[in-house]
Amino acid sequence: MADFPSSSIKRQLSVMTVGLLLVLAATSYWVANIYGQRAARLSYDRLMAGAALQIAESIRMQDGDVVVDLPQAAFETLALAPDDRVFYAIKMLDGDLITGYPGLPKFDPKTSKISTLEGRGAFPLRFFNAPYSSEPMRFITLTRVLNDVGVTLEVQLQIGQSLRARNALSADISWRALQFVAFFFLLALVLVTFGIWMLLRPLSQVNKALSERSPVDLSALDVLVPVEVEPLVQTINHFMAQLATTLDRLKRFTGEAAHQIRTPLAGLKSQAQNALEEQDPQRRQEQLKRVVECSDLLSSTVSQLLNQAKLAYRFQSEIFSALRLDSLVKEVCRDVAVAALRNEVEVAYLSSAQFIVDGDGFALKQMLRNILENAIKYSPRGGLVEVELALPGWPGAGAGAILRVRDSGPGIPVEERSQVFEQFYRSPNNPRSGSGLGLSIAREVALHHRAELVLMDNQPQGLVVEIRFRGTVRDEP
Amino acid sequence: MNPSLIVLLAWLTLCSAQVQAETTYTLPAPEQPASALRIYGAADYSAIAPLFAQFQQRNPQVSIDYSEFSTRVLYQRFLLEQPRSPDLVLSSAMDLQIKLVNDGYAQEHQSLETEVLPRWANWRHEIFGFTYEPAVIAINSDFMQGEALPRSRSELLSLIRRRGDQVNGKIGTFDIERVGVGYLTWAHDRQQLGSYGRMLESFGAHQARRFPSSASMLQALVRGEIVIAYNLLGSYALAWAKEYPVISVIMPEDYTALVMRSAFIPKRAVNLHNARLFLDYLLSLEGQQLLADRANLFPIRDDVTGEQTAPSLRRSTQSRFQPIPLGLSLLVHTDKAKRRLILDEWDAAMKAME
Amino acid sequence: MRILIVEDDEILGEAINQRATTQGHGVDLVTTGTAANEILKHQSYDLVILDLNLPGLNGDRVLDNLRKRQTHTPVLILTARDQIEDRIQLLDLGADDYLTKPFDFGELEARCRALLRRHQGQSQDAVSYGNLVLDRRACTVTISGELVEIKQREFRLLEIFLGHTGRVLSKEEIIDHLYSFDESPSPNAIETYVARLRKKLQGSLVEIRTLRGLGYLLDREGG
Prior knowledge:
The structure holds 3 protein chains of 3 kinds.
Chain A: H1 9-57, E1 59-62, E2 65-68, H2 72-78, E3 86-92, E4 97-100, E5 113-120, E6 123-132, E7 135-148, E8 151-162, H3 164-212, H4 230-277, H5 281-317, E9 321-324, H6 325-342, E10 346-349, E11 356-359, H7 361-378, E12 384-390, E13 401-406, H8 438-448, E14 452-457, E15 463-469, E16 473-474
Parallel strand pairs in A: 10-12
Antiparallel strand pairs in A: 1-2, 3-4, 3-8, 5-6, 6-7, 7-8, 9-11, 11-16, 12-13, 13-15, 14-15
Chain B: H1 3-17, E1 23-27, E2 35-41, H2 45-58, E3 62-68, H3 71-81, E4 88-91, H4 94-102, E5 106-107, H5 112-115, E6 122-123, E7 127-140, H6 141-144, H7 153-162, H8 164-167, E8 171-174, H9 180-192, H10 196-205, E9 209-211, H11 214-223, E10 228-233, H12 234-243, E11 247-250, E12 256-266, H13 272-283, H14 285-294, E13 298-299, H15 310-316, E14 321-323, H16 336-352
Parallel strand pairs in B: 2-3, 2-4, 8-9, 8-10, 12-14
Antiparallel strand pairs in B: 1-3, 4-12, 5-12, 6-7, 7-10, 7-11, 7-12, 7-13
Helix pairs in contact in B: 2-14, 10-16
Chain C: E1 2-6, H1 10-22, E2 26-30, H2 33-42, E3 47-51, H3 59-68, E4 75-79, H4 84-93, E5 97-100, H5 105-123, E6 126-129, E7 132-135, E8 140-143, E9 146-148, H6 152-163, H7 171-178, H8 187-201, E10 206-211, E11 215-220
Parallel strand pairs in C: 1-2, 1-3, 3-4, 4-5
Antiparallel strand pairs in C: 6-7, 7-8, 8-9, 10-11
Helix pairs in contact in C: 2-3, 6-8
């Protein structure tokens, strides 16, 4: 993730889960607070309602007068909020105070907060909050209708109580909620930590399994892992299998290369030793010629090996650039043409088209040189090697570009064609074969350029090597 | 005769004569510079004077102004003088004190000394009971003529019924209209007593007399002007009974109400620090012990030693003590309509027999 | 000719030494870069054959020092490295030619000859190839001593070929050498000139070969 450069999954998981837990904890604490306030309000509202009803019951008419005999019990009920102050008033509907405190605040929908209206039997109750006597207060009002002979009076009762007990209760509920939330937060944290550890254990198991094995052990990992980690293990196994194949190939290559270098060296040495002791100048001359031949072969094998190594390195690091394929081909042709002429083989370039190809110039030259040198080597004296670049749209050119190298040599039998590209392959029918690396390198280069290397018969005789470039060609004359 | 008792008796006689008058005692600070402490109290000066003396010894830079009122007057004066305010208010009229606190005239005070108080002697950390008084019945034992003393209110009522003619005009109780503590105990009886109606009727039928103070009641009792004194303050009754064996003090077994003297620091107190100092001293073991030893008052603290203490009082009788808690429910007794109702009931009962 | 061979491999150095000595050259062989540097300060040679990978002072440093002394002795580099960048760097340093190990003695001799000829060509007016001699000052061409009548353009063309023996020259290269930027002859014009020159060279041991699609090569008959 972009926010966590080079960070660990463990830390990301931890940060996310802890964040989530914090949000959850904060939310539940907030909800608990609201709940606590509501619970405290409801509890003490009920007490106030009880007290108000008791007082309302004690209001009666006697001889046309309103008589109030405040019940002690009502105040005992209110005293259940032990430290709260209480104010009360009993008024006629016209505002005349019968008893209690004058000037209690009236319900005002604009300024009074948290008001509730409860129809409770004969006495509809209204609760509201308003400040009084320099303290916020909860008020309850109710109206009682008094009936006497021929008179009906409405009396209003109002009780106010300070909020200490309510606040204490809601604080208590909040505190308990906080303890509860904190407990579960810690519990969840422990569980999540454990969970993360459990989740990541397969990864560390894979790690352990890898670090414990010997460096040459490239067998598949056998670790039981969850589905999500399975691809990782598969990739590791796939990679190790590839590595094993590569190592295997390298082993075979080393063996073959050793053979290819040591054999001519041995020949070289024995011929040279023979020449040292040979008395007959005629024979010594022949032996020394062999020495030179062996050296040539050795030299070309080593060159090819070094080329191959260099190419392998270039394939890893070189970036393709746009190249004029036609110029590149002509350049290689001119390079080999002089040597070919010495062997009385003529090299001819038959196209005039221009091509741009994305590729590695060094590698492509190496490929061409190998193919051309091969063609020249097998051409008879007075033979002709024709090089041709076919354009797209030309008959037989297909979608890409085709480079053809035609010779009039012995050709390669169909059954051998799949093998000649292998490293160190040497035809049993061909005593003049070289290092056995040239065509193999050519094919590697072709593959690297997503080109196809095809061998065909030439008419009336000889070999045609076709390199079919596809996709990388741009026709930009 | 105990010298302190003589002082007490003398003072009681004095203040019975001028119940509503204000008397101010000024105790200059023994040392300078001085700061003041103004106290309004309904407690007798002579009872509290030793406390003042001791307090000043400990805090020599405090001068004390002590103004003494009857409880209702104190209440009215306090309200009338607002926003001027004394630094401390002491009164035995719990209901009036509670009303002042409820109405927001007191301020909070918390200290080590207030922590020791029982729950029912501390409301909102603003008002604190510092002594209590059982409301008792005193009977002239000559009148009993060897009969067993009544142990409860119902036995008292049957005694009155049995000897109706002899008690006519000879039952005494507080003038509930004027004496705060009288009204309080009577209203408490009205609330608690199942036979309140019968008692009211009985008091009315026998023309109960109203007295302005416990002392005047006891005086009349000694003189034989009355034979039964109802709901007078226990500390006075017990002190007199010691001196005059003719007086028998009864703590009714059905219940014996305990009223408290209480103190609060007004919100607008000027000498707040001194007020706090004195209040703490009043509630301290030393102050409480002093109240028990020198003023014959029952201290609120249980750890005070001596005869005049709650534990010894409890040991001496099988009565059920019922403290009237210093709390919100006292507010009911300050209700104007309620007061009117009770006074009307009383008057009606008295008039019924005229 | 006086030749200095700088080669740390004694077998190879000795082989070159022998070969050159048998051909009648005066040869000095040193095996370290430091020794080469010293000897080059005091002695002048007609040709230096220089190995790159040397103990002490490296070959390219020796070359650099030589050129800093404004000495124009032709230098042939022997290298095992064959990457293009290396070669360009060497030519920039002032090497005249290079040869990648392992090499053929025939190739080495040919290169040495070409270098010596080129060097002499700068100081001498006549260049010879086979039985052909081109005299710059006189603007004459002789085959086996016989004067050949030759036009200005054909003379210039032959001069270009002689400067690039053993190499296939494309028509474009020839045009680049033969014409100024303002002129834009068609490749057909080159064909015409080559055909005329070829006619003039009949009877000599030198021939101009056409490689289809690739260009021309000045070659001695019989390789």
